[in-house]
Design goal:
Helix content: 25-40%
Order of helices and strands: EHHHEEEEHEHEHEHHHHEE
Largest sheet: 8 strands, mixed
Distance between the termini: 21 Å
Strand content: 15-25%
Radius of gyration: 17 Å
């Protein structure tokens, strides 16, 4: 059967993508950021995942204000890099896994998640920047990708606990897929940042590092963080961290941390990154 073998979380700062595309990764400002992903690039080469379920948020490129699904699952054969106003990133087309995506859609609906099914969707920096950070510059992405777009931009947004429940249901869906697949799940976005208003530029390293700590063994507390708390402690865009909870929940009750990286700043945000592995033999989150 298919199995989720690891979870990866990372910020998806658009300026990181621009620095990558323009060959600035070795410059003094950007080098510490990109150095923080050298470990995971080598690790991914060794892990050789078949599929990545990638939780991200669309930034008004494919899902405009007239269509705002809470959870949108990409079921297409492929996904083109989106034009975000200055042209599409020069990265490969994202190849989907429609068979696993369709199976997930059916199982998640049976588990009472009312998904929006996306049979066509361009994907923006929220999805392509993490791929560049994990795999570097390539002619073709070495994995198939199932995009899961989460609404964190327009009210009402899902709660952290609802995202956790979705992660549990995703694990159940993957485990019931009969093909032998090495699946990873990624949570992207965050960490603390605010892009507008009197608090523009807000970064809260204390909150960010407490969140990173909690991903390992204090997940019940993370599930309780409200939208107001995210707004107060991590800025108006810190709510993106709920997508990390989808990733974490899909790994089951117990995990080990393989790698962790935190850096301030990259553009006007904090950058966080963590790699987690389910502990063999531990009960799933649903069973626990």
């Amino acid at each position: 059967m298919a199995r989720i073998t690891a979870g990866v979380a990372t910020s998806h700062v658009p300026a990181i993508g621009a620095a990558f595309d323009m060959g600035k990764a070795g410059e003094e400002y950007w080098k510490p950021v990109f150095d923080g992903y050298e470990w995971v690039k080598q690790w991914e080469l060794e892990e050789k995942p078949d599929v990545v379920i990638l939780c991200y948020n669309d930034h008004a490129t494919s899902l405009m204000l007239d269509v705002v699904p809470t959870f949108a699952l990409g079921c297409a054969e492929e996904f083109q890099p989106a034009d975000e106003g200055w042209g599409a990133r020069p990265v490969p087309t994202v190849i989907g896994h429609p068979e696993l995506a369709a199976h997930m859609a059916e199982q998640l609906v049976l588990d009472e998640f009312d998904l929006t099914i996306m049979n066509h969707m361009d994907v923006d920096h929220g999805l392509t920047v993490p791929l560049s950070l994990m795999f570097g510059k390539v002619d073709a992405w070495p994995v198939r990708v199932i995009p899961l777009a989460v609404n964190v931009t327009q009210f009402p947004t899902p709660s952290g606990n609802r995202c956790w429940m979705l992660g549990e249901a995703i694990a159940h869906a993957v485990e019931s897929f009969p093909e032998d697949l090495n699946v990873q799940i990624w949570g992207t976005g965050g960490m603390s940042h605010q892009l507008q208003g009197p608090r523009a530029g807000l970064i809260n390293p204390e909150f960010d590092n407490a969140f990173l700590d909690g991903l390992v063994d204090e997940t019940d507390e993370l599930r309780k963080i409200t939208r107001l708390e995210y707004l107060r402690e991590s800025g108006s865009e810190g709510i993106e961290l709920i997508m990390w909870l989808i990733m974490r929940a899909a790994l089951g009750k117990d995990v080990e941390q393989l790698h962790r990286f935190y850096h301030v700043p990259a553009s006007n945000t904090a950058v966080g990154h963590v790699v987690l592995r389910p502990v063999a033999g531990a009960p799933s989150a649903q069973a626990a």
